[in-house]
Write a structure and sequence with these properties.
Layout (H helix, E strand, L loop, with lengths): L2 H21 L18 H8 L1 H32 L6 H9 L6 H12 L4 H8 L13 H10 L4 H11 L3 H9 L4 H29 L3 H7 L14 H11 L3 H29 L9
Helix pairs in contact: 2-13, 3-7, 3-8, 3-10, 3-12, 5-11, 8-10, 10-13, 12-13
Length: about 290
């Protein structure tokens, strides 16, 4: 019964993973399959000693350091606001969810227009008598990238809303009878009961942040292989540049293997620490 899934898993995930790992230890450059030479960890050594690769890794970690908590907090905060029973709440939910389903190319092109010298942001600043900002320049490039990415944080609202709907209402009723305020109910009931959903969102946001590619590329350029501005030169951008621009396939695959290991380690850290802050209703001592 599980053979269809197992065949797909082996053919589309496990085999490419190990085959890519093997090629990353060769001198493969795209046209020498018949003359491959095993070079061991040479490509990995070059990756860790390459200034561009280490700079890109540092910028990616810096970007993720802000994106992961902000995306998690914004998604949860919006879901809590949209969970109130007010007139037209379905319309509000739709409005906040729409950015997450807009095609990524369209949203990037829209934000490029917003960030131009005569765009929306600078027009607002000039309306208040302030000078415009070069949003796509070196000083504000990462901030602009974060704002654009967080605009789509409403995608987590749907998952958070489902989690909020799953909290038993009798818990809130009992807390209200005991005199708990709205803030106390949020602190003592909502947040603990939402920790499994927060845990899931943190893991998924870490993975997506470390794999960010299209946003920095198209925000500062017009082609998929164009080089973004230096502050937005992220790790996956460097890997794709190495593979498709310079045809250094083995070196590029070694970069992606390193990324896989980094995601695995960070996910493992979150999983390990989850026992201290994730509450499951079924976790009861017997």
């Amino acid at each position: 019964m599980i053979s269809p899934w197992l065949i797909v898993f082996l053919g589309t995930f496990l085999f490419p993973l190990f085959y890519g790992l093997y090629l990353s230890m060769t001198n493969y450059y795209g046209f020498n399959m018949e003359h491959l030479k095993f070079v061991g960890f040479h490509n990995y050594h070059e990756a860790f000693t390459n200034s561009d690769a280490m700079y890109a890794l540092g910028r990616t970690l810096f970007y993720s350091l802000f994106n992961v908590p902000l995306a998690t907090i914004i998604g949860l905060g919006l879901a809590m606001l949209l969970n109130y029973k007010v007139r037209g709440v379905a319309v509000y939910r739709t409005i906040f969810y729409i950015p997450s389903i807009v095609p990524i190319i369209s949203s990037i092109l829209m934000w490029r227009l917003i960030y131009t010298n005569d765009g929306v942001f600078n027009s607002i600043l000039e309306f208040f008598g302030l000078s415009g900002i070069n949003w796509l320049g070196y000083g504000y490039a990462t901030l602009s990238l974060l704002i654009m990415v967080l605009w789509g944080a409403g995608g987590g609202v749907l998952i958070n809303l489902a989690g909020l709907k799953g909290i038993p209402s009798d818990l809130y009723e009992a807390a209200s009878i005991d005199g708990a305020s709205a803030f106390q109910r949020m602190l003592r009931i909502t947040l603990p009961m939402m920790t499994p959903v927060i845990f899931f969102n943190v893991i998924m946001t870490i993975i997506s942040s470390l794999q960010t590619y299209l946003q920095p590329i198209l925000l500062n350029g017009s082609e998929l292989l164009s080089r973004p501005i230096r502050p937005n030169y992220l790790y996956v951008v460097h890997a794709f540049q190495s593979i498709f621009s310079t045809q250094r396939y083995a070196y590029g695959m070694s970069l992606l293997v390193i990324l896989f290991v980094a995601i695995f380690i960070l996910s493992l850290i979150v999983f390990t620490t989850s026992k201290y802050w994730v509450y499951y209703e079924t976790d009861q001592e017997r």
